[in-house]
Amino acid sequence: MARILITGMSGAGKTTVLHELSQRGYRTVDTDYDGWVLPDGTWDEPRISALLASSSSLIISGTVENQGRFYGGFSAVVLLSAPVEVLIQRVSVRANNSYGRSEADQSAIRQYVLDVEPLLRSGATLELDARRPVADLADEIEHLVAAAGPA
Asked: 136: Cβ–Cβ under 8 A, 6 or more apart, which residues?
């Protein structure tokens, strides 16, 4: 069974790629929504553990401080990355999330690229250039699902 985590900075396209994979019929969970992240900014560990113990393949997206605790439960950890100016441009115009529009948010994103992205990179099994077309990124992730075995 495939268990894929898509991670990366705000604006990298995690939600967009996850939506594309959902449209292709994959079971997906965007942990930015529906209470997966606790008020302290970490994943709800019992809930994530139960999700990873479920009996079907799935693709999860998110970037939280405690995600590394779950890396052993994933077939692959995919880092979507892009230059910081691309990230800033994307977050400043997206319609589904207001984070990133303010100067303070954009300053925080710049700092996270310096401080957090290297940590994500060190835990990733694959890094993809998030400037590539969404369909191409989804194709790459589909290959990971296929390589992990039947659902």
From this structure: none
Query: Structural domain of residue 78, as residue ranges?
Result: 3-148
Write out pLDDT tens, residues 64-87: 999 999 999 999 999 999 999 999
Nearest Cα to 77, choosing from 25, 148, 19? Answer: 148
**What CATH code is carried by the domain that includes residue 101?**
3.40.50.300
Q: What is the pLDDT of residues 11-21, one digit of tens each?
A: 999 999 999 99
pTM summary value: 0.93
Q: How many CA atoms lie within 13 A of 28 on its CB side?
A: 22
